[in-house]
C-alpha cells in the first residue's frame, strides 16, 4: 500500500522526504563540505574540479554551477544544505530564498516588508495564487 | 527537587543573529523586532534559571545526511558555536549540564522515547539566536544549557502529538532530579516561513496568531494539528512549530496543575523570510 503523501499538492513546494533525500545524498553532502573554510577556498578556486570529487550527477553539478536552487531542490537538494553554497557566495538566506521565486532581490525584499507572500490561492495546486506554476516565469515545480 | 519554572517560545531566524553580530540592531528594519524582546530581557534578568533545556533544530550543521536523529539530547560539558558557512558566530561557548541531561535521558528513554545521546556536538543559530534574544550578548551565557535537537529537516518529522507527549516525559524527568534546580524549557523555531521554491516568502499572520492562542489556552488542540496543516498554512519550514509543543507539554497545567501565566507575547513580520512569534509562560 502506498504511503500517504498529502504534501504533493502544495504549489511551489518540494518536501524533503526520504525519496528526495536519497536522490540528493551526494549533492547535500557536497554542500556540507563547504562548512570548512579550506573547502570553501578550494571550491571557489575551481568549482568544477571540486564538484568532480563528488558522486553527484552531471545535472546536479550543472545546477550548482548555475546556482539554480529550484533545480537543485528538484534533484534532491535541501535548502538547509544548499544554504552552505549561498554562504560560500556571501549571500543571505533572503537572497537565496528570493532567487527561487522569479522575483528580483528588491521585489522579494519588498514583498517580505509588506508582510510576505499571501497563502490565498497558494494552498493547493490548481488555485490562482502567485506561487502557482502558471504565474511563475520558471514554471514552478520541476520534477 | 528540580522544578520547571517557565517555558519560553521564540523563532530563531539566522538573520537576527547576523544583525546582532554585525551591529545592525538599531537599524530601522530591526528596531521593532528587538523592541519586542526588551520585556523578555528584563524578565530573564529577574527570573534567571539554573538551567535552560533548549529545544531547537539543527540546520544541517552538526547532523548531515550521515545520521538524522529524530530527538537528540546534548549531554556534553560544552558545545561550541558552529561554522555554518560564514564562520562561527562570535558568541560564548554553551556550557552544558551533563548530570541533569543524563538523568533526563535515562528517565525519558525508560518512558519509551528513544533519544539519541550526543556527547560531542557544535550548536548552530537555532540554539544561539534564542539565547541572544533573551540574554543579550554577554561574555558568558547566564547558566548551563541542555541542547535538545529535533529533526525537522528531513520529512517525516515527529508529530505535534509526539512532541507534546515527549514534553510530558521531560517534565517528569526534570521533576525527579534530586537537586533543587530552577529549570526553564524553551521551544524554538517557526513561525510561518517557507525558504524554498516558488512559494518562498509565505507568511500567514492570521494562522500564526490563532495558533499562539491555541497553544496558550488549549495545548491539546495545538498538539492535534497534523503536519500538512503546517505546510499548507505556515509554509514548508513552519513545521518547526512542533518543537514548541515539547516545551508546552512540560508545563504544570498539562499534568493537572493550574494554567500558566502569560508573562509576554510578541509577534512581528518580517525577520528576513519569517513571521516571528514569542511567548513566555510561567508556571504558577
Quick recap of the structure?
The complex is a heterodimer of chains A (143) and B (284). Chain A is mostly helical and 143 residues long.
Number of strands of chain B: 10
CATH class category label of chain B: Alpha Beta
How many whole angstroms does the radius of gyration of chain A measure? 16 Å
What is the total domain count of chain B?
Answer: 1
Tell me the name of the CATH homologous superfamily of chain B: LigB-like
Describe the structure.
- The complex is a heterodimer of chains A (143) and B (284).
- In chain A, helix 2 runs parallel beside helix 7 (79-88).
- Chain A has two domains: 16-89, Protocatechuate 4,5-dioxygenase, Chain A; 92-118 and 130-136, no CATH class.
- Chain A is globular and about 45 Å long.
- Chain A has 143 residues and is an all-alpha fold.
- Chain A is built from nine helices and no strands.
- Chain A has helices spanning 18-23, 25-33, 37-45, 47-51, 58-65, 69-74, 79-88, 93-98, 105-113.
- Chain B is α/β, with parallel strands linked by helices and 284 residues long.
- Chain B has one domain: 3-Layer(aba) Sandwich (Protocatechuate 4,5-dioxygenase, Chain B).
- Helix content of chain B is 34%, strand content 20%.
- Chain B is built from ten helices and ten strands.
- Chain B has helices spanning 14-21, 31-36, 38-46, 98-110, 125-135, 160-174, 205-217, 219-223, 227-234, 242-249; strands at 3-10, 51-56, 71-74, 78-79, 94-95, 116-118, 145-150, 182-188, 261-271, 274-282.
- Chain B has an eight-stranded mixed sheet, with helices on both faces. A two-stranded antiparallel ribbon of chain B has the order 4-5.
- The radius of gyration of chain B is 17 Å and the shape is globular.
- Chain B starts with a strand and ends with a strand.
